[in-house]
């Protein structure tokens, strides 16, 4: 019997590009040792039951992949021959449904869909041979998911324990205009080193993702509380008691005391309505003060904290002169109204960033989708720096 739930094996936890340092820290904080880290993820050793814990707790991961087998395959036929030897009848229920995803770079394959079909055929043929019945398959990620990673002649086949991506945290039913992916938003907040005790101020908040992620971090409330279906639930050997025990644990560690002021403002009333709906779904609406108005009117509590902007980058033509003025005003607001705070501006446009008129003390590199972005840090001293 192939006992994946209790047998530690190679596990790859993927994330979006440039987020792996933040993912690596998260995984270590959960008590796992990192075998290696790379640009789009980390490798650890874990069982599928341990992957349940990872799926419920991680904020920055995309998929958590448990390796079944690695082998050499020069062409689709060799791939199929290797895959059909795996005891799929002990992994995927014959009366169930599964889907196949893949990352393929092999000269014999012109489309990854062809590789997916080969994987699907091997699984179905094996289960039909052993059980006399064939599971259904298709593109939906809501049941069992199998992932193929095939580079040149090296192939690996994984159970994808996550299914739908973990990088979305399940509360954004109303995305608003050009929203930031939740995993990216969390990473940018972690990059600031915010202590989760001092104020977090988010002018131009849009659909509220940054403020909501800050509230979730402050409460130690993890994304698993928003989700009741994962791919690991649809493999043979799944014990729902393990899932519900971990769910109970993450509820217990949520801290509802001594929470910091979190302020989110936007000039558009409809943006604030969307942000409030998203915050309500996330269970943190009561932790965020929402304000409608120009960003210059945003309340900045006394003392110190973090103020964070994610303004438009002006990817569309013809909006630059207006945005230049906005970025200049952002710089003035930080300088004049946020003394004692650390200021941050997330942007994909270095030319506009120059209009802020402040010298960045640090620059953190990120991607937003395919766009090369920077999180710029500004020290907003009371009086002069020397004081």
Automatic annotation (TrEMBL):
PANTHER family: RIBOSOMAL RNA LARGE SUBUNIT METHYLTRANSFERASE K/L (PTHR47313), RIBOSOMAL RNA LARGE SUBUNIT METHYLTRANSFERASE K_L (PTHR47313:SF1)
InterPro entries linked to this entry: RlmKL-like_Mtase, RlmL_1st, SAM-dependent_MTases_sf, THUMP_dom
Name of protein: Putative N6-adenine-specific DNA methylase
GO molecular function terms listed in the Swiss-Prot or TrEMBL record: RNA binding; rRNA (guanine-N2-)-methyltransferase activity; rRNA (guanine-N7-)-methyltransferase activity
Highest rank taxon of the organism: Bacteria
UniProt xrefs under Gene3D superfamilies: 3.30.2130.30, Vaccinia Virus protein VP39
Residues in THUMP domain copies: 50-161
Pfam families the UniProt entry points to: RlmL_1st, THUMP, UPF0020
Annotated keywords: Methyltransferase, RNA-binding, Transferase
Organism: Sphingobacterium paludis
